[in-house]
Amino acid sequence: MAKSCKGLAMELVKCLSESDCVKVQKRSFRECAGEKSPCIPSECVGLRETYFNCKRGQVDMRARIRGNKGY
């Protein structure tokens, strides 16, 4: 379960690395992922929310018993 969100994290990093926030504005991944900027594509925003829900599911005891929803 510790690695169940790894695929989402890699896709989020890949999506952010191709966005204008990282390429044009030369900002870090953390800065770009942490804010709601118009230069971030909507697919990256969706990935960020899905990754957040995945990480939250690792802490939720009900999800720990059932396991994280598959990626």
UniProtKB/TrEMBL annotation:
Keywords: Disulfide bond. InterPro entries: Cyt_c_oxidase_assmbl_Pet191. It holds the Pfam family Pet191_N. Belongs to the PET191 family. This is Cytochrome c oxidase assembly factor 5.
